[in-house]
């Protein structure tokens, strides 16, 4: 007799999928670990008390209480493992050496190790991961471990590629080592954590191939050497099958992404099309691809009547091989593990223990890597399969699948007696309809059979399409919260697009690998197969492109507030429970779920603004400027949008700061529109990010100065024209007013018209509110500073946005004396790439008694004033460190991340 037997409904409900609450409790523990202020010994002591308490309650027959206490134990385990992973690094790890001061990352060093991945060519650079064995600095060799991602930037002067294979031992010097750095702006993606989850704590740059010293021998495993070698050959085969000069449909890039997980060659147009249609997941190797491959293999093997055990074994081998070939990325490994656990449970228990398999995969992955919980792809993957398994699939099986099943052997009337009443009635109705339209006395026996069979197939197809539509609809609804949170997009067009694209995916995956295998043994056959495969890619693009053009079906949305999160998840959970019970209240819950999806789409929540205050926020956009202003009456202004600076001889930067940083910040403030966008001047680090901002937000006016144009400004004006944004030209001497805040334009003069774009083109704005003033100096240099002094403008201000990132070509002593600010804000990138801010300028500011804040060290800087007092805060001040954790107090091998 089971220890869980008895009348306890709670225990019986939990034991249907026992791993589900365990995984949830463990994940909750990981989520609270940063704020869990118990030491390691205290946690272990508490865990022992919980285990004894649960055993004692179980002995007393208090099963439900014992279960709850056991879940508390798993919660505590989650906090312990998460804190241990965060705090512990081996003593010889490169990050440990740097934190102890043994290694100075900002000084030259020589790295020795072996290539953990082959060099991979991408549009702007090549890179490989180096597994360290030694670091030498100042003539002192140090044993080291850890991974450094190494970059090489070929250009016109250095066109040669790295061509490094897996396992190659090598040694080379680097000028410095840089930690992956986040944009210190709310709402931005956590690049640092993402790299650390891959084991990458530092990056380096190979500047000259002559410095690479290839060492003798080989490292790594033979299996991975074979896998990487095969992957390289398959990537090259796709380039040969679809030459770039004849591949206007991006077929090679799409197939590289779908089959081998190499998405760096996708064009921006292709990415945007798939994002707008809500099917970008098709281009990222994930659970859809693993499932599609498994489904295709099951179907192929079923044609040869292969046994279930043999089929499972062959599918397992193919899925593991696919995970290795596609780069062993976290999403594909996660999806492969889920599918393999499901197949194993299916063999052992002879039942579809889907929810339990999902929970087992999540629990195993979180035990190995607790920080995966903070990975957006982890949340998206498991939310997707949970919605699929607990809502979408059960709804379809409950509502429409019985009608599809009822169409089998339709003329066997004796089957009506063993089916559900609704199925029997449906069969009767369909026979009546078919008999009415297909009367054998009028059509003849042969034509009657043909027409009746055709009509039956049409009815069956309609039912199947209806099943797919309901399935995709509930999947899209259930996924809308995650899409709004992580991608700031709700795409109703995905319902249409997925109906076309999802059935194509298994064909593309299986067919694609068949063509790639043929390319290794018989090139003419592979060329023929590539033509047919190209037709499938064309169909995929049509399936994505059509829905993407549906106006208003894909909208960008701000971050939802907490009440939307909690309400949506509560309704989603209620829907799953009600569907499982086949309750009549299911449709009420489903309607509420649709209601929350509509709320996410319309985003009727108020922006995060402080009324009756003027706010200036300088965003950390690396080397560039982007200022956000919130006015006392609620109107908003964005001055510049940042933008990665292109390097000579290299393609344009791939990172879109306007999308990834500036727009994400505005969405985190729950903004849906901007009243005013101002471009100070047309340099890339001010202009390029505004292009995405204008695409993402309705804008009332675009303000420009009288300066010259360039490529970036022309692109911005094209977007403004397409979006219907009026352009307002401003120059010195003009004044505007917004919500009672007068704005004076101090530079440049109306007649300013140089031959090319320069820093002195910058619009300089002075805003006054009550007794306080802000001076926003753009990138003006000493020439324009002197001109403003000569024109006699009242420059005195409380806050100065220091011009040109703190360059010594600006912020002259007379100008600073005239402004006499209390606070200075410098928008500048890290590592002083261009020598900004200059020490002379910092010293000038110190001597003038100016309290200076910098975006490279302080992150996003916010100043608010009610017209009298001024309040400042920075991103760094708002960050909270993890609670202290040390398994062995005083041990040097446990290093808390500062």
**Shape call:** globular
Euclidean distance between termini CA atoms? 53 Å
Look at the structure and give the mean pLDDT.
88
CATH superfamily caption of the largest domain? Ribonuclease Z/Hydroxyacylglutathione hydrolase-like
Strand content: 5-15%
Structural class: alpha/beta
Overall tally of structural domains: 6
CATH architecture of the largest domain: 4-Layer Sandwich
Amount of helix: 40-55%
Number of helices: 30
Topology of helices and strands:
Blueprint: H1 9-15, H2 19-32, H3 40-59, H4 63-87, H5 94-99, E1 109-115, E2 120-121, E3 126-137, E4 140-143, E5 147-152, E6 169-174, H6 191-197, E7 200-206, E8 213-214, H7 222-241, H8 251-260, H9 268-276, H10 287-303, H11 308-325, H12 330-349, H13 354-368, H14 376-399, H15 401-406, H16 421-437, H17 440-443, H18 445-487, E9 489-491, H19 493-521, H20 523-548, E10 554-556, H21 562-581, H22 586-602, E11 614-618, E12 627-630, E13 636-639, H23 657-668, E14 674-678, H24 684-696, E15 699-704, H25 711-722, E16 727-729, E17 735-738, E18 741-747, E19 764-769, E20 772-776, H26 782-791, E21 799-801, H27 813-819, E22 823-826, H28 839-847, E23 851-854, H29 855-858, E24 861-865, E25 870-874, H30 875-878
Parallel strand pairs: 5-7, 13-14, 14-15, 15-16, 20-21, 21-22, 22-23
Antiparallel strand pairs: 1-3, 1-6, 2-3, 3-4, 3-5, 6-8, 9-10, 11-12, 11-24, 12-13, 17-18, 18-19, 19-20, 24-25
Helix pairs in contact: 2-4, 2-13, 3-4, 7-8, 7-19, 9-20, 10-11, 10-12, 10-19, 11-12, 12-13, 13-14, 14-18, 14-21, 18-19, 18-22, 19-20, 21-22, 23-24, 24-25
């Amino acid at each position: 007799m089971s220890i869980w037997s008895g009348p306890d409904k709670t225990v019986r409900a939990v034991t249907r999928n026992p791993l589900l609450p365990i995984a949830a409790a463990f994940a909750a523990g990981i989520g609270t670990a940063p704020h869990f202020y118990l030491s390691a010994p205290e946690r272990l002591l508490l865990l022992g008390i919980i285990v004894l308490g649960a055993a004692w309650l179980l002995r007393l027959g208090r099963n439900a209480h014992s279960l709850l206490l056991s879940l508390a134990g798993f919660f505590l385990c989650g906090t312990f493992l998460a804190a241990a992973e965060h705090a512990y690094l081996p003593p010889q790890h490169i990050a440990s050496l740097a934190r102890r001061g043994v290694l100075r990352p900002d000084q030259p060093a020589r790295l020795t190790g072996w290539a953990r991945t082959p060099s991979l060519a991408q549009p702007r650079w090549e890179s490989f991961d180096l597994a360290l064995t030694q670091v030498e600095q100042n003539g002192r060799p140090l044993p080291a471990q850890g991974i450094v991602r190494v970059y090489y930037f070929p250009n016109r002067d250095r066109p040669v590629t790295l061509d490094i294979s897996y396992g190659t031992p090598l040694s080379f010097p680097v000028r410095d080592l840089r930690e992956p750095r986040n944009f210190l702006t709310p709402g931005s993606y956590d690049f640092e954590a993402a790299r650390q989850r891959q084991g990458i704590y530092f990056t380096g740059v190979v500047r000259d191939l002559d410095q690479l010293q290839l060492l003798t021998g080989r490292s790594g495993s033979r299996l991975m050497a074979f896998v990487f070698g095969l992957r390289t050959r398959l990537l090259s085969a796709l380039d040969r099958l679809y030459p770039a000069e004849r591949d206007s449909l991006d077929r090679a890039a799409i197939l590289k992404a779908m089959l081998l997980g190499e998405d760096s060659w996708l064009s921006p147009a292709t990415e945007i099309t798939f994002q707008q249609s809500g099917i970008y997941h098709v281009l990222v190797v994930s659970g859809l691809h693993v499932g599609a491959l498994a489904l295709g293999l099951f179907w192929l093997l079923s044609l040869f009547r292969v046994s279930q055990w043999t089929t499972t074994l062959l599918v397992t081998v193919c899925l593991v091989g696919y995970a290795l070939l596609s780069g062993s990325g976290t999403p594909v490994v996660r999806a492969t593990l889920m599918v393999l656990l499901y197949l194993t449970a299916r063999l052992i228990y002879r039942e579809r223990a889907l929810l339990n398999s999902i929970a087992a995969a999540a629990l195993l992955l979180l035990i190995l890597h607790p920080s995966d919980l903070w990975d957006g792809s982890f949340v998206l993957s498991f939310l997707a399969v949970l919605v699929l398994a607990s809502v979408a699939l059960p709804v379809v099986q409950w509502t429409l699948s019985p009608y599809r099943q009822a169409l089998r052997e339709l003329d066997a009337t004796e089957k009506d007696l063993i089916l559900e009443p609704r199925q029997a009635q449906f069969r009767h109705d369909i026979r009546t309809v078919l008999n009415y339209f297909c009367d054998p006395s009028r059509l003849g026996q042969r034509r009657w059979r043909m027409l009746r069979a055709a009509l039956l197939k049409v009815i069956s197809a309609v039912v199947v399409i209806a099943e797919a539509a309901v399935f995709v609809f509930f999947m899209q609804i259930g996924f809308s919260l995650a899409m709004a949170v992580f991608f700031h997009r709700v795409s109703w067009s995905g319902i249409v697009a997925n109906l076309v694209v999802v059935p194509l995916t298994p064909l593309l995956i299986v067919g694609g690998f068949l063509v790639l295998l043929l390319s290794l043994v018989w090139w003419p056959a592979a060329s023929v197969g590539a033509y047919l495969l190209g037709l499938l890619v064309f169909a995929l693009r049509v399936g994505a492109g059509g829905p993407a053009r549906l106006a208003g079906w894909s909208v960008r949305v701000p971050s939802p507030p907490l009440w939307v999160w909690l309400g949506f998840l509560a309704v989603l959970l209620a829907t799953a429970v009600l569907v499982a019970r086949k309750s009549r209240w299911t449709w009420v819950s489903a309607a509420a779920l649709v209601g929350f999806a509509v709320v996410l789409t319309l985003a009727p929540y108020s922006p995060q603004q402080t009324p009756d205050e003027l706010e200036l926020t300088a965003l950390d956009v690396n080397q560039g400027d982007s200022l956000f202003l919130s006015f006392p009456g609620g109107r908003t202004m964005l001055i510049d949008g940042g933008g990665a600076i292109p390097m000579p001889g290299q393609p344009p930067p791939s990172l879109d700061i306007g999308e990834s940083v500036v727009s994400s910040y505005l969405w985190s403030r729950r903004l849906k529109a901007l009243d005013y966008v101002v471009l100070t001047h047309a340099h890339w680090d001010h202009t390029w990010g505004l292009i995405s901002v204008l695409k993402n937000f309705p804008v009332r006016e675009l303000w420009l100065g009288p300066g010259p144009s360039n490529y970036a400004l022309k692109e911005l004006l094209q977007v403004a024209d397409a979006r219907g944004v009026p352009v307002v030209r401003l120059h010195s001497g003009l004044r505007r007013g917004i919500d009672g805040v007068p704005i004076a334009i101090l530079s440049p003069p109306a007649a300013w018209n140089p031959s090319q774009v320069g820093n002195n083109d910058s619009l300089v704005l002075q805003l006054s509110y009550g007794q306080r003033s802000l001076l926003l100096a753009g990138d003006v240099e000493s020439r324009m500073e002197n001109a403003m002094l000569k024109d006699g403008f009242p420059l005195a201000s409380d806050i100065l946005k220091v011009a040109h990132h703190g360059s010594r070509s600006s912020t002259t002593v007379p100008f600073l004396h005239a402004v006499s600010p209390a606070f200075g804000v410098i928008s500048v990138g890290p590592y002083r790439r261009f020598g900004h801010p200059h020490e002379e300028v910092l010293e000038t500011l110190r001597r003038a008694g100016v309290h200076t804040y910098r975006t490279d060290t302080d992150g996003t800087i916010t100043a608010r004033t009610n017209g009298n007092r001024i309040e400042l805060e920075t991103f760094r001040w708002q960050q909270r460190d993890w609670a202290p954790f040390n398994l062995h107090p005083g041990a040097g091998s446990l290093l808390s991340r500062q």
